[in-house]
Amino acid sequence: MLFRRRKPARLAERLRALFWSPKGFVRPFRYFRMRIVRLAASPHAVAAGFAAGIASSWTPFIGLHFVVSFALAYVIAGNMVAAALGTAFGNPLTFPFIWAATWEIGTLILGGGDSSIGRHIDLHHLFSNFEMSQLWRPVLEPMLIGAIPPALVTGFLVYGLTFYAVSGFQSRRRARLSLRARTRLAEAIEGSVSV
């Protein structure tokens, strides 16, 4: 086998690797950050696209987050790849928290604690019969209305952070490439003069 370990991992090592990654949990986040920062677009386009992706993750429409993020990115002149990467904010680990937060915010905005909204909902019956009119009012409408405030807050916050990160990375990269080009030019001139 090409990538086999010299000494096979013991059972304790395999169990520990199941719960704690040997490379650490920071590495995927670093890779994700570098993937966003290295996109070949203007800082505004990358930041706007990434913010659109995160904002679309707050909506309750699973399966349509890419479409919603692409539409938002198109409207605000964002990068589509950054928008697709931003939808990773909504994942199976964060969806329960997102849905609970948006539903609570939505019920506060719509009903302000009205006892008829969100009480005694038979979700099994709603999903088995799939009556959209009955599912819209108690579940989807509060979640959609409740998604607006956190989507705006996280969108603006992420836009600012991403804009400054991308512009800083691109300016450092331009300076590094300029320095490398100048040294190559100086070496080429020095080589031609000595001949």
UniProtKB/TrEMBL annotation:
Task: Enumerate the spans annotated as DUF2062 domain.
Answer: 27-174
The record, for InterPro entries, names: DUF2062 (IPR018639)
Establish whether keyword NADP is in the entry. no
Membrane-traversing stretches: 36-55, 61-86, 93-113, 143-166
Keywords, comma-separated and alphabetical: Membrane, Transmembrane, Transmembrane helix
Q: Does the keyword Protein biosynthesis apply?
A: no
What PANTHER family does the database record attribute to this sequence? SLL0298 PROTEIN
Q: What is this protein called?
A: DUF2062 domain-containing protein
